[in-house]
């Protein structure tokens, strides 16, 4: 027999007997969706809608991650498929799933009986609790019965021999056997203290493992320290981030994470230095001084110096002429020249800005962000109507927006056909935002809201029941679901939203 314990932090939320499930036909699913066998509410959406499944194969329980973004973790390692060890928490977002196995009563009784050492045939035992394999003997002693199909221990020939012996010999032998049996029983019988120790050991063995935040954080810190010792600071940072999800103010976790980050930064800096040295090695000045330059190197050096001298001469001449020109200009000429330069600078800045906005609009079109592209192209047309091919791009963007809106609308219709009401409503709203001229979009949206209304009514009724019973977390979850399922024009939506706001503020 086995069961799973669902924790959030150090709070035990649920205990689920796995004997309730037929694992041949039904696996145990974990996730945010109501379709899961174990629903894990998570407003932050660290837990996926269908996150993981627990299956029973070859006499053991196995956990399967269903391709989630945040993953499923055991012992600090992210897994895709692994056997679930009893007593070791499986981390799914902020939740801990603990498998607990224990034998049923019949199995323990069978183990107790089968665990006793066999009694040799014909052995005489001292007084013990009645056992179906023994029968009453002389003087309160019990003697084991021979197994079925076997002959008694005493054969007829032995009885005839005993009958021929004198009575004193028979009585003396019998008393000797009784004394030996009593002495053996006193030596080999288990003491009460040993029995008590065995009982205490069994009680200790059968005690279930109860994980706490401290044990989970300690395990993650130990794994992180091991990774850090092996020179793997990035893995250590990941484990410590998970520990902070359990206890955000744990001083040891914060200090160790700071150390791991410093080690990681140092590793990255060393790697950059090695890469730079490999791609652009710095010449050794000492080695260069020790090696005399060749004739070709000296000629190349002379050519470089000559080129530098020529460039310097040209720059000097340009500056001299500019100075002469500046001195020769009158005040009016200087003002006119400055105005021309300012106009050129303004034209250049405007051209640069138009080019930047044009490039952004084309990039938005390539990303199918047609609304952004249309806004940018329309702004360009207002300033410069004949700028490049802006008019043609604007027409293509408008056609692309209409096509995208129709695609979103068709996907919403498909989601509605599959009963995915929330996805359908979101798709219809997105399609209307892209193109409000789609024929019949208001009618299909109302139809989807009407289909969701019974689900909202059921969630609202159950939320009110939990609210009346004081089960606030369950009531909050159902009020939120009712708000999502009710149409904006449904009066119950505002009632559910108001009550949700009220009890959420009280529960903080």
Over all CA atoms, what is the radius of gyration? 43 Å
Number of H- or I-type helical stretches: 16
Task: List how many beta strands DSSP finds.
Answer: 14
Overall morphology = flat
Q: Could you please describe the fold and organization of this structure?
A:
The structure is a single chain. Among the domains are: 2-103, Tumour Suppressor Smad4, CATH 2.60.200; 213-276, Up-down Bundle (Methane Monooxygenase Hydroxylase, Chain G, domain 1), CATH 1.20.58; 440-507, Methane Monooxygenase Hydroxylase, Chain G, domain 1 (Up-down Bundle), CATH 1.20.58. The strands form three sheets. A six-stranded antiparallel sheet has the order 2-1-11-10-7-8, with no helix packed on it. It contains 16 helices and 14 strands. It has helices at 105-114, 156-163, 167-188, 192-206, 213-229, 233-246, 251-279, 285-290, 295-328, 331-366, 370-383, 390-417, 421-434, 441-469, 472-485, 491-507; strands spanning 2-8, 11-17, 28-31, 38-39, 52-57, 60-65, 72-74, 77-79, 81-83, 90-92, 95-101, 124-125, 134-136, 142-144. The model is unreliable at 105-160 and 190-208 (pLDDT under 50). It is flat and about 150 Å long.
């Amino acid at each position: 027999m086995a069961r799973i314990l669902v924790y959030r932090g150090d709070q035990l939320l649920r205990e689920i007997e796995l004997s309730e499930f037929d694992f041949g036909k039904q696996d145990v699913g974990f996730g945010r969706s109501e379709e899961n066998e174990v629903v894990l509410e998570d407003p932050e959406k660290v837990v996926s809608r269908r996150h993981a499944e627990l299956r029973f194969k070859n006499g053991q329980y196995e956990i399967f991650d269903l391709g989630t973004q945040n993953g499923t973790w055991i012992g600090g390692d992210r897994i895709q498929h692994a056997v679930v060890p009893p007593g070791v928490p499986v981390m799914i977002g902020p939740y801990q799933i603990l498998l607990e196995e224990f034998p049923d009563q019949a199995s323990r009784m069978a183990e107790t009986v089968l665990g006793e050492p066999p009694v040799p045939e014909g052995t005489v035992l001292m007084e013990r609790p009645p056992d179906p394999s023994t029968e009453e003997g002389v003087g309160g002693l019990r003697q084991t019965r021979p197994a079925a199909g076997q002959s008694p221990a005493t054969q007829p020939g032995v009885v005839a021999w005993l009958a021929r012996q004198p009575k004193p010999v028979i009585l003396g032998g019998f008393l000797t056997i009784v004394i030996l049996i009593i002495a053996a029983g006193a030596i080999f019988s288990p003491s009460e203290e040993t029995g008590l120790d065995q009982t205490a050991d069994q009680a200790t063995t059968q005690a279930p493992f109860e994980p706490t935040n401290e044990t989970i954080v300690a395990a993650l810190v130990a794994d992180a320290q091991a990774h850090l010792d092996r020179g793997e600071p990035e893995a250590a940072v990941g484990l410590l981030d998970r520990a902070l999800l359990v206890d955000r103010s744990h001083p040891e976790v914060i200090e160790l994470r700071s150390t791991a980050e410093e080690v990681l930064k140092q590793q990255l800096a060393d790697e950059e230095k090695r890469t730079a040295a490999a791609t652009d090695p710095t010449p050794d000045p000492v080695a260069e001084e020790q090696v005399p330059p060749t004739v070709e190197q000296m000629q190349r050096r002379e050519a470089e110096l000559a080129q530098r001298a020529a460039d310097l001469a040209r720059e000097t001449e340009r500056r001299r002429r500019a100075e002469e020109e500046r001195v020769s200009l009158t005040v009016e000429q200087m003002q006119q020249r400055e105005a021309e330069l300012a106009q050129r600078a303004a034209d250049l800045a405007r051209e640069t800005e138009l080019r930047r906005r044009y490039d952004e609009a084309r990039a938005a079109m390539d990303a199918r962000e047609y609304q952004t592209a249309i806004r940018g192209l329309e702004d360009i047309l207002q300033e410069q109507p004949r700028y490049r091919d802006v008019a043609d791009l604007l027409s293509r963007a408008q056609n692309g927006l209409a096509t995208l809106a129709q695609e979103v609308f068709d996907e919403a219709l498909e989601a509605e056909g599959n009963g995915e009401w929330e996805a359908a409503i979101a798709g219809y709203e997105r399609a209307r935002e892209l193109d409000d001229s789609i024929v019949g979009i208001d009618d299909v949206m109302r139809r989807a809201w009407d289909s969701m209304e019974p689900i909202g009514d059921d969630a609202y009724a159950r939320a009110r029941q939990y609210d009346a019973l004081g089960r606030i977390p369950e009531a909050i979850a159902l009020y939120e679901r009712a708000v999502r399922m009710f149409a904006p024009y449904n009066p119950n939506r505002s009632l559910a939203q108001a009550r949700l706001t009220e009890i959420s503020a009280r529960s903080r």
